[in-house]
Design a protein that fits this description.
heterotrimer, A alpha+beta (219), B alpha+beta (193), C alpha+beta (276), A: 219 residues, Glutaredoxin, four-stranded mixed sheet, 7 helices, B: 193 residues, Rieske Iron-sulfur Protein, Alpha-Beta Plaits, 2 domains, 18% helix, elongated, Glutathione_S-Trfase_N (chain A), transferase (chain A), transferase activity (chain A)
Amino acid sequence: MKLYDYVLSPSCYKVRLMAALIGVKLEIRPVDFHPGAEHLGPELMALNPAGSIPILEDGDLILTESTAMLAYLAAKAAPEWLGSGAPEETARIQQWLSFSHRLTASLGGARLHEMLLRPGDIAALQAQGIAALRELEAGLVEQGLRGMRFLASDRPTIADIACFPYVALAPDGGILLDPYPAIRLWSRAIRGLDDFIEMPGIHRLHELNPEPQIEPGAA
Amino acid sequence: MPARIPAGPIALWRSQAGHAVASADRCPHRGMRLSHGFVRGEALSCIYHGWSYGKTGNCLRIPAHPSLTPPETIRVATHDVEESDGIIWIALGQPAARPPRFEGLVPLRSLTVNANVAAVEAAAGAKADPEGLVSPSQHPQEIRLLLAPQDDQTLIHVLLDDKSSPSRRIAASRTAESLRRMAEDLQAKVQAS
Amino acid sequence: MRDEWYPVGLFSQLDRNGRNTVLMGEPITVALDAEGAATVTSGSGRALPVRVRYGHVWSSLGNPRKELFAIPEADQPGRRFVDVGVVRVRCSPLRAVENFLDIAHFPFVHTDILGAEPHTEVEEYKVEIRKDEDEVWATQVKFYQPQAAKSANGGITTEYMYRVPAPTCSVLYKTCPPRPGEWDVITLFVQPLAEDLCDVWPWMALFDDATPMADLIHFQQTIFLQDRSILENQIPRLLPLDPGMEIPTRADLTSVAYRRWLKRHNYTYGAQLVAQ
């Protein structure tokens, strides 16, 4: 499986993260999105006329939507990430997968504007981003009251992976995460999963490693 | 986690042994916010260079100089913290009394509102009682609000009857969201006029 | 301060339409003229001085008394030049440079790439303000790195030299894994938009024929974006030049020299002089 990847793209990171969490090896093909705009060049436009990344290629299957990639990876290697099949859980997964596109548009748009100088109405993007974060916070509070740590169940699903990156990187777009305690706990739960990988802007949870005992002069 | 008190921003953290600590949210080395840091054992470490601070604010470790014992002069300010019934209280200076107890109530969640205390009280249709609790007039049985002003925002701690069922608690959380919307609408109207 | 040279764009990205940007609060336009030469124009239509060097267009709001600093390695045959591209950061331009001069943060911010616990110790190194060049230099800087460069396989102790040839620019010379004896050159060119806002233009001149260009760009963007989340959360945003505000140790000698050098030149754009 080949992933056309940009290291700073939260949507590409969703796919890398999912693959890492379920132990799927991806062949990474780096794309010079910034500054080179390679995603708009002929080679990538032939794969994805929409001119977006990530693109996941597996045989003659070409996927251009990160949500579909998450579903594909999970279905192939770890179906438990697709949920138990219980009606409410299935619905919640679909609800948050759709919701994740709003995060991309709002938080992602603000991030591109503030970091990589892309055009956009920054005040509107930030206001929409904050509205989306409040919905997510409320949803997570309610899940907590149901005794569940994740968006659709008490275990992570593809819905969590679809929402996590743009939320964790909201500060890149000038949107503070300080006011959202439930999002903070959820984010820590995801970052604490076995085989979790980071991307730039999401730091290692150093608390998971023990304090190094250094002999003076030994380093 | 980050929090705000009248003395400025703080990093609020819980040590492994369970102590809640309120440290100033700035590492004196390079000014990095300590609330971005990490807790190992009984110390909070800065994410930037790993300088770590104990519960009383003294610097315990500078990883760039592992054999150095940090001088006493390197420290962050800390504030007294009290926990009672699931609510964390921070004292400015020496507290004269223990924080109030709210018998029969349990905290549900905290929300930040882009409105001042007056707007929140107007949305609730009630003023804070002597203990600082607001009982919203539309929902007197459902929730109590504990308000903490934070510059131009208000932090609302939502409390409710400790015998409430999970579905009652979810409903209370939604009620709090509605109250926030009302308070922010009121605040926007005041600012527009 | 207005008489310094500042980076204002990537030459390879310029076109006739030009790029509207800001330099120290003043709007400017960077464009190509009919002959394909770079031009920089102020908001009032004034033609500003221009240099095209190290992949970037350089300009100044004033009248630079000094020529743009030299990087002799930029003319050395066999190097690959990497335009990493712009990243905007809400911080003082001076904070961005100071962070670039710092190695002690590697294990915590660039974990498992440029550093890792327990290898956190910063050994003694040499710092000087070179009188002839009027530049800050740090030499014999050594640090253990799990993955020092895209071309590195496994951990090595990397040697660094840092150089500050201009207030908002730094040049790093670093052990070159495929070619012992040579130095890879990695630079940080910072365009001050305001005292607390900057556009950062990293650039590299490497000996590395094997790694695809996109990988090289991604590696450096990864490193810088890890720094960005630190830089946007330092308080205050401006760089304090008052020694009482922040506490340096022996590992921070480059930073101490840099702050002292800025103060000596009265370079205060993006600096805070008195504790507030």
